[in-house]
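Protein: Endoribonuclease L-PSP
Species: Lentinula raphanica
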Amino acid sequence: MSVERINSDENSKFTHILSHATKVPGLIFLSGQTPVDKNGKLVDGGIKEHTTQCIKNLENVLRAAGSDWEKVVKVNVYLKDMDNFGLMNEVYEKLLPNPKPARTCIQAGKLPNDVDIEIEAIAAY
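Structure follows.
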C-alpha cells in the first residue's frame, strides 16, 4: 500500500512533528488545524473567526492533496468551551457544502497553544 505525506505551502509548517495530511489509496487523513495563519500566528478575533481560519487551513490541505470539501466524509471538531458550539456552527454551516459530512464535536480539556478550536477531517479523493 502506498502512503504519501502531504504539506500545504499555504499553511504554517510543523514537519518536525506532523504532516498536514497522510494520503493512502482512496482516503486522506487531515491533521487537526488550529486558527493560525501561514506564519503560525493566531488570527485575531473570537470563535467565529477562528472557525473560519481552521476551515480555510483544512481547505488548503485538501487542495494540496487533490481533494475538496465535497469529498470530506468525516469531521472532528474540538472546542475549548462547548458554550461556543452555536457560534462555531453558524460559521461551519455557511462554509461547508451540503450535504454536510459526518461530524463529531467535543469539548477538549486543552488544545495546542491554548487555542479555542481545532478541526480535523477525513476525505476521499
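Remarks: The CA atoms of residues 24 and 63 lie 16 Å apart.
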